[in-house]
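How it folds
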Amino acid sequence: MSIELSYPMSRRSLLGAGGGFLLATTLRARAAAPIDRRIVAAPTRARLAGVGHPETDVWAYDGTVPGPIVRLRQGVPARIVVENQLDQDTTVHWHGIRLPNAMDGVPGLTQPPIKPGESFTYEFTPPDAGTFWYHPHANSLEQLGRGLAGAVIVEEREPPMVDRDLLWLLADWRLTAEGEIAAGFGNRMEAAMSGRVGNTVTLNGRVSEEEPARAGERIRLRLVNGSLARVMALRFEGHRPVIVAVDGQPCDPHEPKGGRILLGPAMRIDIAIDLQGEPGRRYRVIDDFYDGLSYWVTQLAYDDEAPIRAHPLEAPLSLLRNPVPEPDLADAERHELTLQGGMMGGGGMAGMGGMMGGGMMGMGGGVAWAINGMSMTGDGHAGMEPALTFRRGRSIVLTLRNQTAWWHPMHFHGHSMLVLSRNGAPVPYRQWQDTVLMAPKDAVEVAFVADNPGDWMLHCHVMDHQMAGMMTVLRVA
């Protein structure tokens, strides 16, 4: 099931008028009324594996997996009340949104946890349009692994000209033969390796056999990787997707290298696809990231109708840039953070001399990872000392060095980072990211303006890695 995002003017009326695309002016005409909504986190059941398979006990927002799309508007204030009906504390982190520190959802560090039966009100004005998501930052390994996640769509003032705007929130689950979520969160061995990779991949909360397509359409497809640890490399058979945004931030439109869209946990990539396949045919969407473990996520299933247009739209694919401040590279402070630890190929642990634990993993595990020799475990807590402190308004160039044998999607809260280089080679296409996927032994250089005051988490979004120590705090004062 694709989730299609609705607009004030129906697609049918546009097609009937011969336009075949969404008018950019429709959103501009909307009244900028504040957005006010309520979300409830509670246990429920979901049929993840599809018809004919048993339901699964999950934790969900508003009773659905994934949770409801939170539709916001760029520059328009939002007030979101989150009610906790779980039997444990929770919070909500609005992943990728540049919001005030007190609204960031890190328990102890930015807010008190939401106790069972209580609620918390998040209030912020999103400065950037794009694709974001929300998830817990309390017992996050288990809470995210049991289903608590949803997408945030911040609408552009001038959306691109496409026929359909779709969302695919991809996630994986470790299910038993009876269809229940397997126990064993926080396994020490997994935490020191690739993390908890599941055995069932869902698209918008269910195993997908096919997704409808119409020849001649141009679609915008918002991809979100909500997995705990699974890295994805997606190929669209018979199609040439164009990347138009990464982590909510527009980039120079470009085709992915080798046709593979590399999507680490917590990353979002928006693509535009001109559907030029044959009516009646099916084209697989394949994830072949892990050697020897290729599988297909779904199929684009074309209907039998004639193409809606003979040639692809000539409208530009580029999105309007967001107001992210541009770093001054000539006058920037320069710092390095080194990722350490984890299980090595021979079965031993990588050296982490001088590492200091910030607490136990909390689920039977311990410290396995470090950043600059320091480990902070769990989800965040009061009194976390910053690894680095930046003066507000300063431009920062940060080099991240992965000395481990494992992949790490490194997420920085409250900011977007311009990715400058990878292993000494310039990164093209002006890519801003809040979650940078690092391969083993990678060195990645990023830049940003430290304009958002507060204590901000920087951590690996393989949730086992975060819980076992790959987390630190960067302070903007």
Remarks:
- Confidence is low (pLDDT under 50) at residues 6-30, 351-364.
